[in-house]
Each structure stands twice: as C-alpha cells, then as structure tokens.
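Sanity check

After download, print the first record. It should look like this:
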Amino acid sequence: MTALRRSTIAAVCWSAGLACATAQPAPREPLPAVDLVIGNNFGHLPMFVAVEKGFFKEHGVDVRLKIVNTGTDMVTAMQKREVQAGDMSVTTFLKARHAGDEFRVIGIIQSDATRANADEPLAIVARQGSGIEPGKIESLQGKRIGLAKGQTSDEYFKMVLARRRMAYTEMEVVDVRSPFELAPTLERGQVDATVSWEPYNTTVLEKVQGSYVVLRGGGHLSYVMVATTHATTVETSPQMVRGLVAGLAEASQYTRKHRDEAVEIFARWVPGFDVAVGKKAIQHISYDPRISGPVLQAFENAEDDVLKNTLKGAQRLDVPAQFAPAFLAEVQRSNPQYFDDLPPLPESGR
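Expected structure tokens:
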C-alpha cells in the first residue's frame, strides 16, 4: 500500500469519526544464520561469490564466513562447533573422518566431475639457482621444500615422491603455514622450492623473479574441495543444508561464467591479495559441483593414498557412505539451469 493511499484512508476515517487502521505488510522473518569456515584460497571461491552476490540468501540461508589458512583450522572450527558447516579438501576430510569426526559431504566446490585425477591447482615451484630441474622430480633430492605440513600440499608432495619411489625423508621439509609466506620464504632463499595450491603457486611465480614450475598437477590425485556439515545437522536441519547446496550450485556457475569478477570478490575478503595474479591463477581451476563416478573414484584414490602415505594400518572408510547426496540431486532436478553449461559426464559417471 502506498503512502498516498494510506493517508487518503486515514483522512476519510478521521472525517467520519471512525477508528480505522491501515493494513501493514507483515514483517519478514529473519533468515537462519549459518556460520561457515573456509580457506583463503581459490578452492573456496564460489563460497565467497555466493555470499557477495546474495545466492545463499536467495535460497533461504544467511551465511557468515570464517576465513582461515589451512584445512587443520577448518577441521578445528568444525570440531569446536564454532561453525555449522565448513569447506575442506578431500584428503583433509578423509583424515578427519579417520580421526572420528562425524562430518558428511553435502556439496562439491572445486572439482572436475569428468575425471578422477584433476590436480592442476597444485604445483611445485623452484627458485632460480636452486639446482632443481623442471620436470625432473629426482633433482629435488636433498633440497629444502616449503609447504604446509599435514595439508593437501603435503599429501600431494608425498604422492609425487611415491610415484618415483623417493623417500620423503630425502628432502628437508620446512613447515610454511601461511600461504602468504611462500613467496618471501622462497625469495630469501630459505627454501629451494615450494608446494602449494592456487592462487599461491601463481603468486610465487609472479613475485619471485626467475622462479619456475617444476611440476604442475600430473594426475597424482583429484584435488576436490568439499562442503561439509555434521552428520546430525543433515538429519536435524535439512532445509538449511539444501539452502547451502543450492546457493553453492548457483554460485559455482556464476564463478565459471564470471571468473575475473569472482577474483575481484575474493580480493575484497582477503586483504593484500593481488587481483592481477588471481586472474591468471583461476585459469587452472574447475568449479563443477556434480557428484559423479569420477568424483567418487577420486575419493577412493585419495583414501588409498592417505592409508599408504599417512595413516598406515587404519581401517578403510566406506567412501559412498561419507556423502549426503540427496540435497544436490534435488537441486539438480529443481534448478537444472545451474548445470547447463557443464560438459556431459562419462557414461560410467552418470
């Protein structure tokens, strides 16, 4: 009802000596707030986009982001119930489940659903004069390697070495927890090479003069980033979970179609980030939210490697049981337009 209409009704009521009330719009119920922990890297980029563009609110949830450096920080926030949902890599998720954390995968963030070994966001970068040869992993022997211990970069490095039958102990691994410290650490010569994810591999290449790629990806694992929540939340708050999954699906497509803008959004959340570097780095990443046969195979492969390289002797997880896929399936039925730009899945992955 317009202000003019309300004033006209009020005037008529006053002149007639009537006590009449004008109808007021019902107040809108506040959306349920959801605290979500994510990392300060491009594996989580659609989450930043979903908050900034209002996609989560469009689907009924008001998401507040807690931004951290590593997967360990994400797991800790989930364990302490500081958040209701969180992002993490496939290897971080699997190690958390082996430790007894009752998390479930509700969505896929960074992934290529058409293959089980998409690891292009991961790379080994060396400094000029290090004596490390591009493409020759054996030349890393005896060198100082900077990476975040216990995180996906560490697991990736172990897999690269294992494929060449090299021992992790043959290198001096330096724990660099903050990805922002990788470039300065390499530039000062404190390490000979770094191992990380995007956008920090590209940051090192752009910021450290003469640095170069030793290996990018290589099909060692599928670097899948997943959205998770507690198993109890799946049961008690299905509408909240659906809102998260739907908002993520819409944001994933927006990110795919507007990569430069997505990088600019990221820079507003992560102080000091170089947008020009980010626009180069994002070209190495796929944002396909579908759960497919290759994605499940990627989880099985990651479980193999975690048991072989990190958790020797642990009992194998039932990988399909780690997913709560019904929410994404429902979103794919109700909003097929969020997926219409993606390539078809292999026949075995349908």
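If your output differs, re-run the checksum step. Summary of this record's structure: Confidence is low (pLDDT under 50) at residues 1-22.
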